[in-house]
Amino acid sequence: MTTIERPNELAANASFELAALELATNYRAALVAEFSPHLRGRVVEVGAGEGHISERLRKVAGVDSLTSIEPDAALAKRFRARLPDIELIEGTIDTLGRDQELDAIVSINVLEHIRDDESELAKYAHLLRERNGRLCLFVPARQEIYAPIDSDFGHHRRYAKPELERKLKTAGFELLAIDYFNLVGYFAWWLSFRVLKKRTFDANAVKLYDSVIFPIVHALETRVARPPIGQSLLVLARPTR
Questions:
Q1: pTM to 2 decimal places
Q2: Which helix (H) or strand (E) holds 140?
Q3: How many domains does the chain have?
Q4: Is 2 a member of any domain?
Q5: Is residue 3, in this structure, part of any structural domain at all?
């Protein structure tokens, strides 16, 4: 059975990790914009947290129904308070059941929390296969910048492109795109959390980066060239038939 490593003793840290995402409004918008052209029909978001991404996914044209899944009871409670009109399952992908047929699965900063990530990916492939659906996956990248704060968040790993490609193919996926994301964020993470070993985010720094620096970085990465490395990996894949 799938286990997302967010036990009670890590619940506060999981909330703290999601709080940083809440401040990064342009960052969230960019992620959803990257995936939006591939979202249609019945969509499931895995590891929805408090619903910051779900709130945007439900507005994507072509999404007929959205189901969000969150294993942590405290986060699920906050999700329901914020977004009572979105279907939420308190559990994991196993709670959804294997007889479902999906058009897309969105997984943003979740797979790194799961010890057996290859098994999790295989479950996604099974659920998407009948409708030739799409996996929209976003994970932290580059193990060399794995820092104490990653451990605090319950991250088992950060991914390199070849490793993730291999795991996706083994799980039954054909890659449509896999790109590093946020080059400047890579160096900021390395300095702040790997070198200086900070264990908290600076809210003002997050807001400044999101409002001033990130829009320029993302425009260059999407309109000029994808970076050779980055803070994260952005993946689009479909199940092999």
A1: 0.91
A2: strand 134-140
A3: 1
A4: no
A5: no
Reported confidence tier of residue 203, pLDDT bands at 50, 70, 90: confident
4 pLDDT higher than 60 = no
136: exposed, middle or buried (Cβ count in 10 Å: 0-12, 13-18, 19+): buried
Pairing outcome for strands 87-90 and 232-239: unpaired
pLDDT of 145-179, one tens digit each?
999 999 998 999 999 999 999 999 999 999 999 99
Given a contact cutoff of 8 angstroms between Cβ atoms, the answer to whether 133 and 108 are in contact is no
Q: Which pLDDT score is estimated for 18?
A: 60
**Which structural domain, as residue segments, surrounds residue 36?**
8-239
**Distances, alpha carbon 60 to alpha carbons 20, 38, 46, 181, in Å:** 23, 10, 17, 22
The per-residue DSSP string of 37-105 comes to GG--EEEEEES-TTSTTHHHHTTSTTEEEEEEEE--HHHHHHHHHH-TTSEEEES-HHHH-TT---SEE
Contact 140, 112 (CB under 8 A): yes
CATH code of residue 23:
3.40.50.150
Residue 1 lies inside a defined structural domain of this protein: no
Angle value at C-alpha 178, between 65 and 168, nearest 5 degrees: 75
Query: Taking the C-alpha atoms of 193, 196, 197 and 203 in order, what is their torsion angle to the nearest 10 degrees?
Result: -60
Only one residue has tokens 């083994």, namely 170
Please indicate, yes or no, if residue 98 is contained in any of the structural domains.
yes
Tracing tokens 């890590």 back to the chain, one arrives at 10
